[in-house]
Specification:
- It is a single chain.
- With about 160 residues, the protein is mainly alpha-helical.
- It has one domain.
- The protein contains six helices and no strands.
- α1 runs antiparallel to α6 (about 105-120).
- It is globular, with a radius of gyration of 15 Å.
Length: about 160
């Protein structure tokens, strides 16, 4: 069983209702916002690549993206981050560090916490690095709509 594919499937299911395209919150505000909007419109979660997430000439646009855009792009950002050799989950978490965790639904948040567990179990991240995500990153999270795994066990 491929654990990486399992966590990517968990993320994909949690975000399957999101749609694009990615947009800037106010493209008519100024030239920079218009440039960010143009660049965001060219992104698709299915074909995001490492340069989209890590290049300083491109990754600045995510701070201009709407919450809906971040949700739509999340599965692609996570896929890119985890498929690097070695995996680089900080790529994803750094991009959302300026966003608050309330942009995600309960089911999406549970999937993100499963991702945190998956990455921390492999020593790719530590929970201490993710304090900006809020207190949920460090406690058991439950929802009547989603039945999360036993969070005290490693991701399987």
């Amino acid at each position: 069983m491929n654990e990486q594919q399992d966590i990517l499937n968990v993320i994909e299911r949690a975000f399957s209702s999101e749609s694009g395209p990615a947009r800037c919150s106010d493209p008519n505000h100024c030239d920079e916002c218009q440039e960010a909007d143009t660049m965001l419109l060219n992104l698709d979660p299915r074909d995001l690549n490492l340069e989209d997430l890590s290049s300083e000439s491109k990754n600045w646009i995510f701070c201009f993206a709407t919450d809906e855009s971040i949700r739509w792009l999340t599965p692609g950002m996570i896929r890119v981050a985890l498929t690097q050799d070695p995996p680089r989950p900080r790529l994803f978490f750094d991009l959302i560090s300026q966003k608050t965790s309330d942009i995600y639904s309960d089911d999406q948040w549970i999937a993100i916490l499963d991702l945190v567990d998956y990455c921390c179990d492999r020593d790719w991240l530590s929970r201490d690095e993710l304090g900006y995500l809020g207190p949920g990153v460090c406690k058991n999270y439950t929802s009547e709509q989603a039945a999360p795994r036993n969070r005290s066990e490693p991701f399987r």
